[in-house]
Structures are given as C-alpha cells and as structure tokens.
Amino acid sequence: MKYSLTPVGCIQSPFKEKFAVPRQPGLAPSATASILLCGEANQEDAIRGIEQFSHIWVLFLFDQNLEQGWTPTVRPPRLGGNERIGVFASRATFRPNGIGMSVVSVKGVRKIGHQVIVDIGSCDLVDGTPIIDIKPYIPYSDAIESAEGGYAGEAPKTLEVIFSDNATHKIKSQKDSEHKEQVIREVLAQDPRPAYKKGKMDTKEYAVHLFDLNVKFIVEEPLITVTAIEAFCD
User: What sign does the dihedral 198-204-209-215 (CA atoms) show?
Assistant: First the structure.
C-alpha cells in the first residue's frame, strides 16, 4: 500500500547546501529560520494558537536524498564513520521514506501579503526543505528525564573558531554582521568535515555556502580558522 504526501510549507534558512548543516537541532542556536506555509495550509487559521507553545516538532523530507534510496545499515558520524548500525537506530538522512523531524523554538508568527510565516530558532534544515507537518512540543510527554541516548548520549565536542584578518574585515562589512558571524562560529565549531577526517592531519581548505556567503576554512584541531569570506557565486 502506498500513500502520498503534500508539503505544507518549506524552510528558509542560512544553510544553502547539505555540507555543514548541524547534525541535530539546537547545536547552532543562532541559526534561525522561517517556515513558509504553502497550498491549502497557507492560512492563519492553520497555525492559530501555535504561539502558546515555546517549541514545535517539524516533520520534513530529506528531498535531496530521496532518489538515492536507502540501505538497512549506516555509519553514524558519532561512531567515527566506521561502525555500522541499523538505519532505524540512527538519524541518518538516507531512510526508507526520507522523513526527518526536528524540535525547534517558536520565535513568532507573521504574514507578508498572503504569505503566512512561522519564525523558528536553532534550525538544522537546508534552505528549501519541504515541510510535511508541524506539531506542538508537549513538555510533560515529550521530555523524558530517564531517557538514554545510546552512542549519542552526550553532546559532540566543539572546536574553537577564529577569523583571519581578511575574514574579519569581510564579515564586519556585511549587513547583520554580528548575527552572521555568530552563525558561522556555531556551525563551524561542530567540525562539519567527514568523520574519517577528524583526529588526523588535514591540509585541505574547505568551503561552505552560508547565507549569501562562501565561507572558507581550515582545521588544525582543536582550532578552526576562517581564512576567507566571499560573496557566493553559482
């Protein structure tokens, strides 16, 4: 038996590509985003009362991965990318139905013309990700004090992020420079490199598309240096 899903909205976020997106919500608190409702769901009645809740569950599609299919086992980055576990014992993006979920804070609700928007905090979604449902987070039932996190029982370690003189000058010249700088720091502190690169000498210069910027950086653990910031060009 097959079912079809119709998105109720899409995400506007600073993450313009999969690389460097935080692996869980909450790891980059300053990475705020917006849910733009669409179709029949794009009406104020559909979110009436949502501001009573501090947080919501956002269900979405890993739309960039759907055509690549899935496998029953995956290699979680938290296990160094070497050990395999079952896909249902992970939050891997390659899943049978490509559905993901994140709990995010509600920052507010607004309307621009006919467009209804829910502003959210600490997003971990690529810009344009289809949203398939929104549900309120209920503290008394959703927060389980005795829960165990298995191999992901503790938050990942972070690296210190510094900016070169050139990168500092460039980011300071940006509109909303303080916010953009903070997002860059929080995102890169998670060390977005592949798991097998961590703990080893790495001379590669990486680049990530955040906001409208191409952010270049190098990693010399425990330090990440932003070497350059440029306007992003396709």
Answer: positive
